[in-house]
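Input/output pair, single chain:
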Amino acid sequence: MSRAVLVDLLHRCCASCTGASLLEDSVSDSQVFVLCGNTYWEKNGFVDTFLSSCKSVHILDSSSTVESLYRFKQTLDQLDLSSITVLTTAQGKEVLAHYQNLLFTALYDFQFKQRPVDETCPSCRASTDSVSPGEEVCEEVSTFMQQLPALKGELTVLKSALIPDCFGHGFSTRTGGVSYIPTLSSLNLFSSCRRRDPVAVVMENRRRLALHAGFHPQPMHLVKVNHANDVWVLGKAEPESYDAMVTNQTGLVLAAPGADCMPLLFADPVAKVIGVAHAGWRGTIMGVAMATVNAMVTEFACQVSNIVVAVGPSVGPCCYTMERDQALDFMRIHPDCVPDPESARPHVDIRLANRVLLQKGGVLPEHIHDNTMTHWSCVTPCTSCHPENYFSHVRDGLNFGTQVGFLWIKQMNE
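Output:
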């Protein structure tokens, strides 16, 4: 398997000493990346004795370490490489590990090979770290991310006509962020160990969404999905995982993810209580939507008849199929949830299933904004049908992006 070798010349390493040690390690079949910065690139024998024997050499000589390493990651992704050997010193490992945590995910396998500093070499003694570990690295990375251009057009948010102005809310789309991986581009809002979008990119996307939507600098509280019906009442002990949250506290931004699964927003304008839920097919069957409503009623004395629900972008029955035995569970909710029950893989309408369950629980039909409410601006498009605007697990596979539905109770001065 092809691998990448990152040669660190910034942290008490010089080209001559590093080149000599590299010759002992066969890397001729590797993609070699030389991290040297724009003020440090020596050719005194290094190219002739080592780099000329390598399969491919990339010089990372940008004006900052973060820019060089971001270019490094982009090239890795273009080459579909995730195994990286880093040749550095102990000091270099300490510094580069901070960048690794921010700019890469666990999908990338980093192996650090340290060499001792040659104190007799003037260049090794002179080369120093351009940025201190820790907070300064975080600041450098954040500043760099903020300077990146928005991709795929302007940032846009869908809003429901049902949710009154005493609340801030919206459903994100995929445009206006900085993620460059095709299936994650560009406003991906979730970082996972199984995907290539790192924490720094996702946090910048969230910052841009917050600025656009009006809740910056407040953070989003994202549900910790477990595909069930657990509801966290904010103010109580936080469970390890849950698919819904409710609160009556102002200024707290609640958010539910979606990429085919539904982000649901709940608001009671009379009691000033909100909730969000993530409803996939399992959560729908387990009743996460009504579990959220019931928590609002039980914990905050809401009246069900006052609660409005907005259903965000999600996969429609046009694109979503299931095994027949699983589809039977939706037929039990309502026959119209499965339009072709005799098919080997019937199509399933999980949006309709949630509407039926909410109405059975007492939510008024006109208080549910989904794809059936055609007299309002649409907030429930099919994610799979619109690749230019939405992420979709069904369409894009495992390395899919995530959009969110978000909601907060505005403070008096907003």
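The first helix runs from residue 15 to 23. The chain has a mean pLDDT of 91.
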